[in-house]
Amino acid sequence: MRAAVLREYNAPLSIETVADPACPDDGVVLKVEACGVCRSDWHGWVGEHPKVKPGQIGGHEYCGEVIEAGPRAKHKVGDMVVAPFILACGSCPSCQSGAQNTCPNQRLPGFVEPGAFAEYVAVPFDHNLSLLPEGLSATVAAGLGCRVTTAWHGLTGRAGLQTGEWLAVHGTGGVGLSALILGQALGARVICVDVVPEKLEHAKSLGAEHVIDARDGDVGARIKELTGGGAQVSMEALGIPATVNSSLECLAPLGRHIQLGLPTGHTATMEVNMAAIYQGNLAVYASRGMPSWRYPSLLDLITRGAVDMSPLIAREIGLSETSRELAAFNGPTSPGVAVITDFTA
């Protein structure tokens, strides 16, 4: 099969012909229809993700057709499925309690095992997969496995965003745009923060009530002024100290901070404004992925037309263009996200 392989950090991926994946006894092999290119892939590409080593095939936001099923698989050949990026074992205490995204036995295609920057991908623990609803394109569905699910779980499963609350979103990449779209669907009033004017205009066009260019000064103070005291919920979508602290500092008393941006490598440990947390009696949550049992709540929202995630997708690309998209994360990115839909180009 054709695959994009990491051979050297921060260098173009090598487009190679590699062996087709073997089918797991407890899983399936998918013909990949679409795979998103995510900032988490970039962390591995530059060498800052502790699990990603040279030789890795990245790609963890995928949707595809089952072409082979193991004897203990739940799905059958021909099924079109979408995958969460965390594949949970289903039997440990975390899984049994419903917190599959914290499973200690989790499998991670794209980070530890070969991922979906390839024509085919092996998926163990296929009980995590969900059937692709009729009418939902594979291109849009590919983004659900990481950015959209993480944002949805953060807003609803962790911070409990309520109708009428102010939601501040710091960073308008894929996860930030997902939070904007989903937050509006939940009835929140959304403020988006970024440093790229085009991305702020894009967020405004998608319904953000206010947009703030972080280069213009104290983000926390400006959000408190706009909201009359601060946001009830604030989501950090980059994983860097500046936006983490802006998120904490923009909250109203008893506000809820959600950490969605991945702090890894040189940002794994950072200095945060603990005084803001203490004085504001703030709650700090994190959301990494989403338990697979929560997929129906998200898919139902999309299929009944309550939310349209298609504006998230900016570009459909060929496999050989993946390196260009990863390199773009080295600086401020353009609006929207890229999805690989042609694995022969």
TrEMBL record:
- Enoyl reductase (ER) domain location is 10-340
- What is the enzyme's main class? oxidoreductase
Q: What is this protein called?
A: Alcohol dehydrogenase
Question: Needs which cofactor?
Answer: Zn(2+)
UniProt lists the family membership as follows: Belongs to the zinc-containing alcohol dehydrogenase family.
Query: Per its record, what are the GO molecular function terms?
Result: alcohol dehydrogenase (NAD+) activity; zinc ion binding
Q: One Pfam family of this protein, by short name?
A: ADH_N
Domain of life where this protein originates: Bacteria
Q: Does the keyword Membrane apply?
A: no
Q: Which UniProt keywords apply?
A: Metal-binding, Oxidoreductase, Zinc
What EC number(s) does this enzyme carry? 1.1.1.1
Q: Does the keyword Protease apply?
A: no
